[in-house]
Design a protein that fits this description.
about 70 residues, three-stranded antiparallel β-sheet, flat, binds zinc ion, Insertion element protein
């Protein structure tokens, strides 16, 4: 386990072309959309860790019918 968490995908464009930023600790740059962002650890959730079931069925809140 490494000290810093490395993002796998750009949170803005979803690309994998991420590189550590010169801005400092936890800062990353996306080579695809040229955005720079910073990851920050906010703390542990009060509820603690929950076991993730093997077959996750997440409610599809994101699917909406586009207004015409
Ligand atoms: Zn990006």
């Amino acid at each position: 386990m490494t000290e810093r968490a490395a993002p796998y995908y750009c949170p803005y464009c979803g690309d994998e072309d991420l590189r550590p930023s010169e801005e400092g600790h936890g800062a990353w740059e996306c080579g695809a959309c040229n955005r720079a962002f910073r990851l920050a650890f906010l703390g542990l959730l009060a509820a603690g860790l929950r076991r993730t079931p093997e077959h996750r069925t997440e409610p599809d809140h994101t699917h909406r019918e586009a207004p015409r």
